[in-house]
Amino acid sequence: MGAIDPTPGSARAKLAVAGARAGTAAVLATTNRAERVRELGFLTLLMLALGFALAGLGGLIVWSLIEGAPRLNAQLFTEGPSSLSPETAGYRTAILGTVYVIAGVILLIVPIGVGAALYLEEYADGGRWWNRFIELNVQNLAGVPSIVYGILGLAFIVRGPLSFGFVAAAGSATLALLVLPTVILAAREALRAVPPSIRDGSFALGATQWQTIRRQVLPAAIPGILTGVILAVARAMGEAAPLLLVGAVTFITVDPEFFEGGYTTLPVQIFNYATRPQEVFQVLAPAGVIVMLVVLLGMNSFAVWLRNHWENKLS
Amino acid sequence: MTDPQRDPEGPPAHDALSEAAARSARHTAVETHVTPERHERASRTDARPIFEIDSVSVFYSGTPAVREIGFHVGENEITALIGPSGCGKSTLLRCLNRMNDLIPGATVEGSVRYHGADLYGPKVDPVQVRKLIGMVFQKPNPFPKSIYDNIAFGPRVLGMKGDLDEIVERALRRGALWDEVKDRLDENAYGMSGGQQQRLCIARCMAIEPDVILMDEPCSALDPISTGKIEDLMLELKENYSIVIVTHNMQQAARVSDRTAFFTVDLDEDDHRIGRVVEFDDTEKVFTNPSDPRTEAYVTGKVG
């Protein structure tokens, strides 16, 4: 500022400098009250949204812990259901049933989901009407109510062409159909996020399309694909409605098998206990919620660890 | 490797030519097996053509992008494609290794002969073409893998015989990168500087021992020092390879290339931008005594 003073040091120059400074300071300190209120209001809304979501989850966990507290012991995990001695009954068969069913779901949705996504993303000519038709339907299928898949499973998997019977494998196949659209959509997003420059670089080195997909595109897309699989598995694990139609209703006291005999899963078993009037079962049901959360978190933590492991390898 | 005296902004074209010639001589001085004739810029007729491009037009979904392009690319020469943005230089370059096949709706008309064989013949497998004709892209595009695996990818998918460690070392040496990375071959390539990444891409391309290297503005994302290193590298490489380079940097074309094709862009009756070649000649002639007034206007900076 001093450089522009007409006569440095003169009273007039000093006054001008002081005036300019005061003016700048005033501009810098100006606050628009309305805008600040709006900012604060918006932030509050965001916090409320987050708080609502967290309160729901927190409330559920706390309620289940309090209600189920008397039964939170090892027997809950190691003992099967029993009407004769409900004091020691647990979720052993339901946990095993859930693990079998979900393992089957994962085995089905990973290859089929990734395969379908690879075809649609890497091979299909998006200009052809049938490819666009398939795409549209995959998106629509993601929104079909789960009970519809239950009826489909009953007609085609339990009976009908596949005739699996009321076994865990039928539950796996039904739930896999239910969550496949989610996996396909997530896997497509992940494949689309792989930079085209990586594909170009691979093709320019004389790699074939399959080599490019297998060695460049798929490894780079794995973290995104795993995210989709995690979401799909979490949803499959919580489903009860379609499983009621494909056999997971029986009261199972012996450990289930995959292709033979009856089975049950955690949500179905919890529902079963919760509908009984006796006090002892009213404790067992919330304790089951905790069991289910533990199993779910265990599986998810493993999947997240797997995803981070891949991400670290890539970056 | 880089000459510290060199003005990073780039000297005027004719100075650049003599400097490039001097630099070329400096490189060949250490390569004793090279015959002295190699130092001279070959005149227009003496190099054997490696590509014979004849009235090539490229269409994207029926819309023409370049039209009626024709010139020959000589063996062991550097051919530069220059011209304003959007004139189809990269489009033409991507015809030479059939990368345009990967763009849905792209069609190529006319003929491209490679060592006399039709590159677009019915029995030609584009994958085989790309094994022989390597490409370096505008933005360095290393794979998200280690430095070693970046180089080893090509030899692995091509099933090349020989010790992989040796192949990787040889490629990195040719890419003038070995000394900088030999102690961190297992580190991720994304941790390298932009210039190193681009030299890695060049080394990666050379690991599959191609016959020709196509470069699509390889230095446009790099600083002058990295650019200098890559230009030095190109002059070394042309002893064994033929190079076609697209560049927006006219000084670069003047410094490194033997021959230059100048593209312009016209609007056709439907207002489509169509690229054409208006002049193809020895680089020295294009930059000092061009025969077309449009070339002169462009190389002297009257129009950009």
H/E element sequence of chain A: HHHHHHHHHHHH
Q: Give a quick account of the main beta sheet of chain A: strands, pairing sense, barrel closure.
A: none
The total beta strand count of chain B reads: 10
Number of domains of chain A: 2
Number of strands of chain A: 0
- CATH homologous superfamily of the largest domain in chain A - what is it? MetI-like
Q: How does CATH name the architecture of the largest domain in chain A?
A: Orthogonal Bundle
Strand order of the largest sheet of chain B: 6-7-8-3-9-10
What would you give as the CATH superfamily of chain B?
Answer: P-loop containing nucleotide triphosphate hydrolases
Helix content of chain B: 25-40%
**Gyration radius of chain A, rounded:** 30 Å
* Poorly predicted tracts of residues of chain B: 1-45
- In round numbers, the mean pLDDT of chain A is 88
Helix and strand run of chain B: HEEEHEEHEHHHHEHEHEEHH
CATH class of chain B: Alpha Beta
> Strand pairing plus helix content of chain B: what structural class?
alpha/beta
Gross geometry of chain A: flat
Per CATH, the class of the largest domain in chain A reads Mainly Alpha
Q: What portion of residues of chain A is helical?
A: over 70%
Keywords summarizing the entry:
heterodimer; A: 315 residues; mainly alpha; MetI-like fold; 2 domains; B: 304 residues; alpha/beta; Rossmann fold; six-stranded mixed beta sheet; four-stranded antiparallel beta sheet; 11 helices; 10 strands; 35% helix; disordered N terminus
Explain what this protein looks like in three dimensions.
The complex is a heterodimer of chains A (315) and B (304). Chain A has helices at 11-29, 33-68, 75-78, 92-123, 129-141, 146-158, 168-192, 196-204, 209-238, 241-245, 266-274, 279-314. Chain A is mainly α. In chain A, helix 5 (129-141) packs across helix 7 (168-192). Chain A is flat. The two termini of chain A are 49 Å apart. The mean pLDDT of chain A is 88. The longest helix of chain B is centred in the first third of the chain and has 18 residues, at 13-30. Chain B is α/β, with parallel strands linked by helices. Chain B has helices at 13-30, 89-95, 126-132, 147-157, 164-174, 178-181, 194-207, 224-237, 250-256, 283-288, 293-299; strands at residues 49-60, 63-74, 78-82, 106-114, 117-118, 133-136, 212-216, 242-246, 259-267, 273-282. Residues 1-45 of chain B have low confidence and may be disordered. Chain B has eleven helices and ten strands. Chains A and B meet through helix 8 and helix 9 of A and helix 3, helix 4 and helix 7 of B.
